[in-house]
Amino acid sequence: MSAVVAGTAGGFLMASLFISAISIMMFSLVKNPSPTFRTIFERYKPGGVVLSLVALAYPVWGIIGAIVGILYTISDKQAPGSGLGSPNLVFTIAILAVTVMMAVPFVLLLRQVAAGVAFIALASAGVFGWLVPYFAE
């Protein structure tokens, strides 16, 4: 149970970091939009897009965090052993692999804000790969 709570808390931390990064990334996208984003911003105001992302961020990242907490509990029972500064080496490597697989397509699609995507990916790897396991212990 403590791993689920730790995962949810990590998810809420990620939501805060995500909202901060997305807000800054939106400035760049609004200032010099690609044709795709130009049509999106003509249809929807950037403030409304950010507001909807803020409204969705906390529940979505909280659920992701709870799932990560459950997966950590399973991983800790099935493959115990520390490494890479984490209480569970297998779990941390799995989180790193999933983070890279999810971030690379976004970096390629959103080259204009690749630094923001990389920040979100590094933050999620750090929060879910190292912080959640320590909070769950």
Helix and strand topology:
Elements: H1 2-31, H2 35-43, H3 46-78, H4 89-109, H5 114-136
Helix pairs in contact: 1-3, 1-5, 3-5, 4-5
Explain the overall architecture.
This protein has 137 residues and is an all-alpha fold. The protein contains five helices and no strands. The protein has helices spanning 2-31, 35-43, 46-78, 89-109, 114-136. Helix 1 (2-31) packs antiparallel against helix 5 (114-136), helix 3 (46-78) packs parallel to helix 5 and helix 4 runs antiparallel to helix 5 (114-136). The longest helix is centred in the middle third of the chain and has 33 residues, at 46-78. The chain is elongated. The relative contact order is 0.19. The model has no long low-confidence stretch (mean pLDDT 95).
Produce a short descriptive summary:
The chain is mainly α. It has five helices and no strands.
Q: What level of helicity do the residues show?
A: over 70%
Mean pLDDT: 95
Radius of gyration: 17 Å
Strand percent estimate: under 5%
Query: What is the count of helical runs?
Result: 5
| Shape field | elongated
The strand count comes to 0
Largest sheet: none
Termini separation:
11 Å
Low-confidence stretches: none
SSE sequence, one letter per element: HHHHH
Q: Tell me the structural class.
A: mainly alpha
